[in-house]
Write a structure and sequence with these properties.
Layout lengths: L2 H22 L2 H5 L10 E6 L5 E5 L4 H11 L3 E9 L12 E4 L2 E6 L19 H4 L1 H15 L6 E5 L4 E6 L2 H4 L3 H11 L19 H18 L2 H6 L4 H10 L8 H4 L5 H18 L5 H5 L5 E2 L13 E2 L37
Antiparallel strand pairs: 1-2, 1-3, 3-4, 3-8, 5-7, 6-7, 6-9
Helix pairs in contact: 1-3, 5-8, 8-12
The structure holds zinc ion (ZN).
Length: 351
């Protein structure tokens, strides 16, 4: 791209971001998620229009932040932990006392690369077919955080691009140490590794409620939604595939598999192998580093994702099945121009 085009693009982004932060953005919406009483002690970070990243910043009040956003039109706005005293370039966070931050779960489709059946790979693409992995992951993790850990204040956010974040706001979660965060993530992670041969953990110790939830949420949703090819791919026989497709209803019995015709022990071992294959393609894959690092910066609710122009916004758990990221408007698309056409979804041929 020629230099003058870059400049033109930059001016366009700047103009759109300024209009958004000045006219549409409501700082009060953000304050629903960040405790206003510790606002001035929060670390903020920004991806600036010139490509530089800056952090260790704080703002004396929400209006001060809003003014900064309008004047600097950052491509990314990030929130970190609460520190005492307030962070600044003179007082960077490593010199301060860490007071806490929400517990975060991050699910991003590029972590699913080895099991995405579509042509999407890495950080570039996603399609409706691979987005289908997200609702199952949200439902499973959300219920586990609530039932097994007792976290009550959980909000899921669309990250603006290829994934979702869950913020857990309970007071107990705020002061969890990195070791405690790591142990929760460990409990939630059955899949290890991101490579083709990622092994399912040998988990004879799985608590019964968690095991039941795996059947009810993950296995059942796969049986309900998978195409004939996908059912064959995880190892079902043609006979089983026909039986599943004939019998499946919206009220899928979690134990349908157990009703499948079996011919003794060898057949049962085969079914267990099929379960494992379903878990490999459907079990939630977390970006564990995001959860464990207590100083990690995370996209601010209602900020703009600089690569797509889409808003980071809450997705109520009851709406995850109908939420369509491709329907989310981009502030960078206007009637006059669509600079970001190349970032629009790659249509899956089967979708
Ligand atoms: Zn895809």
């Amino acid at each position: 791209m020629k230099k003058h085009q870059l400049t033109e693009q930059m001016q366009f982004l700047q103009e759109r971001l300024k209009v958004y932060y000045e006219k549409q953005f409501q700082i009060q919406e953000v304050l629903k998620y960040i405790n206003p009483s510790t606002f001035s002690n929060r670390e903020f970070g920004f991806e600036l229009l010139n490509g530089k990243f800056t952090r260790n910043l704080s703002f004396k009040d929400p209006e001060d932040l809003r003014t900064f956003l309008i004047e600097n039109t950052p491509l990314g706005v990030y929130i970190g932990a609460v520190f005492e005293p307030s962070p600044s370039w003179e007082n960077p966070i490593h010199t301060l006392t860490w007071k806490g931050r929400e517990f975060i779960i991050d699910i991003d489709l590029d972590v699913y690369d080895s099991v995405r059946n579509c042509s999407c790979k890495g950080t570039k693409n996603m399609c409706h077919s691979c987005w289908k992995l997200i609702p199952t992951a949200i439902k499973f993790i959300d219920e586990t955080l609530n039932v097994d850990f007792g976290f009550e204040k959980r909000v899921w956010f669309f990250s603006g691009r290829r994934g979702v974040h869950c913020w857990i706001f309970d007071d107990d979660a705020f002061t969890l140490t990195d070791e405690q965060r790591a142990s929760i993530v460990e409990y939630l992670s059955i899949i290890r590794g991101e490579t083709e041969d990622a092994r399912i953990q040998e988990r004879g110790d799985l608590p019964e409620p968690l095991k039941q939830r795996i059947y009810r949420v993950i296995i059942a949703s796969y049986l309900l939604e998978a195409s004939e090819e996908e059912l064959l791919m995880v190892g079902f026989s043609k006979e089983h595939v026909k039986s599943i497709i004939d019998e499946r209803t919206t009220d899928m019995s979690p134990y349908l598999l157990l009703k499948l015709p079996t011919r003794g022990k060898r057949q049962n071992i085969k079914i267990l192998k099929v379960y494992e294959n379903i878990l490999r393609v459907r079990f939630p894959r977390l970006d564990t580093k995001v959860s464990i690092d207590v100083n990690r910066l995370l996209r601010m609710p209602y900020s703009i994702h600089g690569k797509t122009g889409r808003i980071v916004k809450p997705i109520p758990v009851e709406n995850v099945d109908t939420f369509d990221p491709f329907d989310e408007p981009s502030i960078f698309n206007t009637k006059k121009r669509n600079l970001f056409q190349s970032l629009e979804p790659v249509k899956n041929q089967n979708a």
